[in-house]
Amino acid sequence: MAKPPARGEAPDGTAGVPAGAAELGDRGPGGPVRPQRPDAELRSLLRQVDERRVEATVRRLAAFGTRHTLSAQDDPVRGIGAARDWLFAQFQQVAAASGGRLSVELQSYVQPPADRIPVPTTITNVVATLHGSTDPGRVYVVSGHYDSRCSDVMDFTSDAPGADDDASGVAVSLELARALSTRQPAATIVFAAVAGEEQGLYGSRHMAQLFKAAGTDVQAMFTNDIVGASRADDGTRDPGTIRLFAEGVPTAETPAEANLRRSIGGENDSPPRQLARFVKSVAENDATGMAVRVIYRRDRYLRGGDHIGFLEQGYPAARFTEPAENFAHQHQNVRVENGVQYGDLPEFCDFPFIARVARVNGAALWSLATAPGTPEGVKIRTAALTNDSELLWTATPGAVSYEVLWRETTAPDWTHAIDVGPALTAKVDLSKDNVFFGVRAVGPGGHRSPAAFPAPVS
Questions:
Q1: By CB neighbour count within 10 A (0-12 exposed, 13-18 middle, 19+ buried), where does 15 fall?
Q2: How far apart are CA 275 and CA 438, in angstroms?
Q3: How many CB atoms lie within 10 A of CB 392?
Q4: Alpha carbons 258 and 266: distance in angstroms, whole number
C-alpha cells in the first residue's frame, strides 16, 4: 500500500495542514494538497508585466475606430486590417528581441458565407509561437480576440472601439509574449490574437481545427475575453478576482464516454476542471495579487467564447472573464442617453486589473510549460471487488516522480496527495467506490502537472 508522509507533513516535505484538511487527514493516506508557490524565475517574469504597455495596447486598438470582422482590410488607419497589421508588427518586434525563440505568422483563410458572414471574408489570426526547449510537441495556447462590434452585430461601419471586449484580452496575450519570449520553457506556448469571434468564433475554430489536423498535443488553452474592468454596473468593484469558466461534461464527449461517466461519475473531473484546479493552485498568490473564482460552466448564459472551438476538438480549454460585467460597455454603439455613457471605451477599463489578469495567465502558462505534461493512460483496476484501489499510468516525459491525489466525492478540489516516487503503479488503502482519484506528474524542480482522472480497466 502507498505510505503517507509523516503526520502534519505535506508531500513536498513542508509542514502544516491547510484549513479544512485536518479531519480528512485522519481518514486516509497522504498529506494535504498545498498550492504550488511561485519560484524565483516565475516571480521575475511576472514582475515584467507592465500595466503601461497593457494600457497602450488597449488604447491603440480602440483607436482603429472599428475592428469589425467585415470592416476594411486594406485601410491603413481604420478597420480590422489596420489592427491586424499593427498587431503583427508588435509581435514581430517581440520576436526580434527573443533571440530566435519566438516566431510570428499570419494565419489566414477565406470564410465562405455563413451565419453573420454574408460574403466570402478573409479571417486572419495573428499567432506567435514560443518554441519549447525540450518538449516542443506539447503546446499551451493563450488568446484574445481583436475583432469588435457595436449594437448591431452586422454594422461594420459605426465606431466599435472594443476596449474591454476584447482589446483587454489581446493586451494580455501580447504582454505575456513580451514577458516570456526571452525565456526557455520546456513546452511550447502560443500567444494568439484571433478574429471573427463576434461573428461566430470563426478564427479560433480555424486555429483549433489546424491544431487537430496536425495532431498537435494541445494540453491547455485559455481565452481572455472581457478581462478589462473590475467595476460592475452597480458601481461595486472587485479588483482582486478573475472568473475562470470551466466545463464539466465535455463538449466533445462520445456516447460511450457519456455512458461510462454516468456509471462511475466524473462530471466534475473533466480536463477543463482539472485545468481550473491547477490554475487556482499556481496563480492565487502574492505574485499575482488575484483570486481565481472557478465557475462550473462552459460560459455565461447567452454567450460564448473562443475556448469553445478548442473544446469541440477535445482540447482542455477555459475562459477568463472579469468578475462582474457592465453591459452598457459591451456590444453598444458609442452614445450618451439620459446622461449615461454607452460604448466599450478605454475610459472604463482598469489597466492595473488587466495587468494582474495577465499575471494569472502567466503563472498558469509558465507553470504548465515548465512542469511535465499531464499523465496519460491513467487507469484504475476494476477486475475484482476489493476495498483498496490500484492505479496505473504510462511514463510522462520529464517526470521524476508521481503523486496519487484523492478527495471525497463531494469535495470540489483535491485534498490529499500521496508521493509514490517514480513508480507507474500504486495501490492505495482506500475504496475506489468512496473517493475520487487522480494522478499528476512531478518534475525535477518540484513543478507539478495538472491531474488526470482514471478510467476503469479490467
A1: exposed
A2: 13
A3: 17
A4: 10
pLDDT in tens, 183-201: 999 999 999 999 999 999 9
Q: Is the pLDDT of residue 12 over 60?
A: no
Say how far apart CA 400 and CA 415 lie, in whole Å. Answer: 22
- Torsion sign (Cα): 189, 191, 194, 198: positive
Point out which residues pair with 317 in neighbouring strands.
Answer: 221
Other CB atoms within 10 Å distance of the CB of residue 93: 13
Buried b (16+ CB within 10 A) or exposed e, 25-56: beebbbbbbbebebeeebeebbebbebebbbe
- Return mean pLDDT, the chain: 94
CB 96 within 8 A of CB 111: no
* Residue closest to 245 by CA, chosen among 185, 173, 322, 310: 322
Q: Which residue has the cell 507533513?
A: 9
**Assigned C-alpha cell, 373:** 505534461
What's the one-letter identity of residue 431? S
8 A C-beta contact, residue 416 and residue 31: yes
pLDDT-derived band of residue 10, with 50, 70 and 90 as boundaries? very low
pLDDT tens digits for range 100-143: 999 999 999 999 999 999 999 999 999 999 999 999 999 999 99
Containing 20, the helix (H) or strand (E) segment is none
Element holding 341 (H helix, E strand): strand 340-342
What amino acid occupies position 438? Answer: G
